[in-house]
Amino acid sequence: xxxxxxxxxxxRVIVHDFxxxxxxxxxxxxxxxxxxxxxxxxxxxxALYTRTWITGTETGLTLxxxxxxTLWTASQGRLFNLITDTITLALTTGKTYFYELKLIDGxxxxxxxxxxxxxxxxxxxxxxxxxxxxxSLITLRRRLADRFDDYTPLVATAAGNVGKTTLIDTANIxxxxxxxxxxxxxxxSGVNNALVRTITGTADxxxxxxxxxxxxxxxxSGDTFDVYNRTGRKFKKAQYDRxxxxxxxxxxxxGVIEVTANVTTAFAQSTPEVTVPSSISExxxxxxxxxxxxxxxxxxxRSRGGDGWYSDPSSGxxxxxxxxxxxxxxxxxxxxxxxxxxxxxxxxxxxxLASEFVIARAAYHLALANVGxxxxxxxxxxxxxxxxxxxxxxxxxxxxWSQKVRSS
Length: 408
Description:
The structure is a single chain. This protein is an alpha+beta fold. The protein has 3 domains: 2-121, Immunoglobulin-like (Sandwich); 151-233; 257-339, mini-chromosome maintenance (MCM) complex, domain 2. The protein has helices spanning 85-90, 137-147, 237-250, 323-327, 355-369, 374-390; strands at 2-7, 12-17, 19-20, 23-24, 31-37, 49-54, 57-59, 61-62, 78-83, 96-104, 110-121, 152-155, 166-168, 184-187, 196-203, 208-211, 224-228, 257-262, 273-275, 282-289, 295-298, 308-312, 317-321, 332-339, 403-404. It has a 6-stranded mixed beta sheet, with no helix packed on it. The model has no long low-confidence stretch (mean pLDDT 89).
């Protein structure tokens, strides 16, 4: 029986070894089933996920190691089960699930080979329940727009028209509100999620907005929306997003984030150079995974060419030498270190850098681009000074043993 803990959003390869009196069991002619359940006594049909290897037809269970691309044979009695990030994100963080592994041999004899648990834990930067502790792009965009008094949330209180060009929100669109004509409507939920439209009509007597082009489907009660550029002289969604990513670029190289990345190919002692994943610019640790799936730290070499790893910044590589290279031959590696915060593309993308700097710096760039407007000429200096004061918040105290492997 094995018990696994996987952080939400992570991948994990579970290795299943099949033995008969200590020797590898030839899987030829057999059918293997791995099922994940909510409860330990659930019937097979209640499985949340089913992975199979049925007489050579692979559906989730494979003879190929997904981390090293090594192809095993059925006679070697080993299958690989890749639990993808899609699965770990779909499962509930903090909840324990139950799995079973069954084999049906050529004589139709069913044998339960293994049972155990799989617990989804909070990933780094994630609170219990799967909620990110770091602000997402949509959160940063809203906070940035608020700095210019340019963000209005709407919630549909009734269904829109059959022509798919209206939404109704009687709470926020009424005689006491200014018109929304010319503003940008961004759909944030429902079947129209992520669509952008320009508002062309405001009927405050009925709480109805009309947009310039039909949506995918008519809006439904409870659908949510963000409104930008309401005054007609502020900014649209794309401008806010561009300013946020420009601010993220401005954070480099003072602002870095901690990164862990797998090396795509298995280590070979004969070619000890390891190309570090491009997301990492400074390396702090390297680990190797043994046949049981456990990770082991490879010590840093005290000198170039000594036992352990050392960096080669000119090539973006590390080299592993000495006894350590021999000990980890054919094993999978992962690298820990520091890297750049990636630009944000999707609303759910998170920013690990201090949001105070990102928002102030993004506001500075927006104001600077529109400095011809009188109020922006004042704001540009305010936002610039605010972002410089907040720059200290993005500074990362590096581990003293970290080694650079690339400059950007």
